[in-house]
Design goal:
six-stranded parallel sheet; 6 helices; alpha/beta
Amino acid sequence: MTQPHVVAVCGSLRDHSYTRLALEHVLAGASAAGGTTELVDLREFDLPPLDADYDEQGDSAELVRVVDGADAVILGTPVYHGSYSGILKNALDYCGFDEFGEKTVGLLAVAGGSFPVTALEHLRSVCRSLNSWVLPHQVAIPRVSSSFDGDDLASEDLRERVERLGRDAVVYANIEPEPPTFESGENVGADD
């Protein structure tokens, strides 16, 4: 059996992004569990707002290729207005059932203020509608600026929770979700 390949998609465009830093720790956990890893930094992709009249726009084909090649995907986002970032939404719009169907997905959200649960709930719903298997363990980091000491996580408990997400992605990367989610069969583009 080959090593599971875990791709983390960073939904933050900031130069000093706590989302990106947290995802690097997730990927360290995945590497420690025997997986290969890749960070998709959306700052490096030309992804104009999706226009469904075109099959490809900008770097969309590269994004789709990388996500499709993953055994597990970790979606990381800052919280904006109680939900996940627009740049992550746009990236997800370029992907679909082919890239996410029956794929293991982990979720991570960071917030400058209170607990970022709603962003995680929104992402979980999107992933389930794409027939992904979303890991039960997710990471929410509230008051994120006090959760880091430089580029490192400030507490051992937080480090364990973040790295566990990466380990779980490797362990469950090739799970066969049964039965498919109800939501997946009700979406436009789903197989009949």
